[in-house]
Design a protein that fits this description.
The protein is mainly beta and about 325 residues long. The protein contains 3 helices and 16 strands. It is globular and about 65 Å long.
Length: about 325
C-alpha cells in the first residue's frame, strides 16, 4: 500500500474518536459488493490476434465498507480489483478511503481519497457504467478519485461541488509541487433535467521531484441530460489544454463530445446507445482523432443482476493510418 493511502487511513482512524464523541444515533456498518465482468470477442483491423479473440475480463470488483458513526459523521473504504485479458496479474487499488461530515441533504465535506465531482456524475447520468466508462474517464482526461479535500453544497435547484487534490489520482498516488482543483456546478430547472458546467486546473502531480513544469493542464466541461422513469438522454463536451504536456515543451489542445440515449421498454428490458468523437492533439497532430460507437440491449431480472448484449466499434485515425476495432459480447453487473 502506498504512503498516501496509509496516511488517509491513519487520518481517518484518528478522526474516528472525534466522530464518536458527537454520536447521537446508533452506529451502523454496511458492506456491499459490485462486480463488472464481460465475455466478448475483440477484433482489430479484421484480424484476430493471439491476445484478442473471445475472452473474459473482470473489469471491476468493488468491495465497499460504509460506516455511519451518527447522523453527521460517516466513513467509506472501497477496494477496487481489476483483471483484464492482456494482464499477467490482477491490479488491486484502494479506490476510496475518506471521512465525511454531513450538513444536511446534499451538502457534505470529505477528507481523504474520495470521488471527484465530474466523472461520478457523468456515470450517474449516463447509467451504464458497467458496460464502459464515460467520455472523460474512458479517454483518461480525468481521474475518478483522488486524495484531498472534497466538498458539496446543495441549495434549491443548484449543486456546487469542488475538490482540492494531489492530482496524482487513486491508482498511483503521488505529490506534485502544488494542489490541483476540480469544480462542478449543476442546475436542475425541471424534474430529471440537469445542466452542468465544470473544470479542472493543475499539474496532475507530474511536476513531482525535479521535473520541470512547462504547462498547467486545464479542462472545461459542459453537460446537459435528462433522466426519467424509463428513459435517459444526454450529451457532454470537453475542451482541454496541455493535458499530457505538463513537463514537455510545445502546447497542445484536446476536445471531444459524447451523446447517449436509453429507453426501458419494461422493468426488465432496455435499449441503449452511445456515440463519441475525440481529437486528442489539435495543434501538434491535428489529423489524430477517434470515433466510438456503442449499442446494446439490457436484461435486468432483479435488483442484483444487470446483463447486456453489446456491440462496440472504435475507429482511430492518425496521419499515417486508420485503425478499426470491433467488440461484441455480454457485459454484466452483479450487486450484493
Amino acid at each position: 500500500m502506498h504512503l498516501p493511502q496509509r496516511a488517509a487511513l491513519a487520518l481517518a482512524a484518528l478522526c474516528m474518536p472525534l466522530a464518536a464523541q458527537a454520536q447521537d444515533t446508533a452506529p451502523a456498518t454496511r458492506v456491499s459488493t459490485q462486480i463488472f465482468v464481460n465475455a466478448s470477442q475483440l477484433d482489430r483491423d479484421g484480424v484476430t490476434r493471439e491476445d484478442e479473440g473471445l475472452a473474459v475480463d473482470l473489469k471491476r470488483t468493488f468491495i465497499n465498507v460504509d460506516h455511519r458513526f451518527n447522523e453527521r459523521w460517516s466513513m467509506q473504504v472501497t477496494t477496487d480489483l481489476q483483471w483484464l485479458r492482456n494482464s499477467q496479474a490482477s491490479d488491486l487499488w484502494l479506490r476510496h478511503a475518506y471521512l465525511q461530515r454531513s450538513f444536511g441533504k446534499g451538502s457534505w465535506l470529505r477528507l481523504g481519497n474520495a470521488p471527484l465531482p465530474w466523472i461520478q456524475q457523468e456515470s450517474a447520468r449516463e447509467g451504464f457504467r458497467y458496460v464502459d466508462a464515460g467520455l472523460i474517464a474512458r479517454t483518461r482526461m480525468g481521474s475518478t478519485a483522488d486524495y484531498g479535500v472534497h466538498g458539496q453544497y446543495s441549495r434549491g435547484d443548484l449543486v456546487y461541488a469542488a475538490s482540492v487534490v494531489t492530482g496524482g489520482g487513486y491508482q498511483k498516488p503521488r505529490l506534485g509541487r502544488r494542489a490541483d482543483v476540480e469544480a462542478r456546478v449543476g442546475w436542475m430547472p425541471a424534474k430529471g433535467v440537469e445542466l452542468a458546467a465544470g473544470g479542472y486546473r493543475g499539474t496532475r502531480a507530474q511536476d513531482a521531484g525535479n521535473r520541470p513544469r512547462e504547462h498547467t493542464a486545464q479542462r472545461w466541461n459542459a453537460m446537459a441530460s435528462w433522466v426519467g422513469e424509463r428513459g435517459r438522454v444526454g450529451a457532454q463536451y470537453f475542451h482541454a489544454q496541455d493535458w499530457n504536456r505538463i513537463t514537455r515543451p510545445g502546447s497542445d489542445d484536446q476536445r471531444g463530445w459524447s451523446a447517449w440515449a436509453s429507453y426501458r421498454f419494461t422493468p426488465a428490458y432496455a435499449l441503449f446507445a452511445r456515440h463519441e468523437q475525440t481529437r486528442m492533439s489539435l495543434d501538434i497532430d491535428p489529423r489524430t482523432r477517434e470515433r466510438y460507437d456503442q449499442l446494446g440491449v439490457e436484461w435486468k431480472p432483479n435488483g442484483h443482476l444487470r446483463l447486456a448484449m453489446v456491440g462496440k466499434r472504435v475507429e482511430q485515425r492518425t496521419t499515417s493510418r486508420t485503425l478499426e476495432s470491433h467488440e461484441a459480447g455480454l457485459w454484466a453487473q452483479l450487486a450484493f
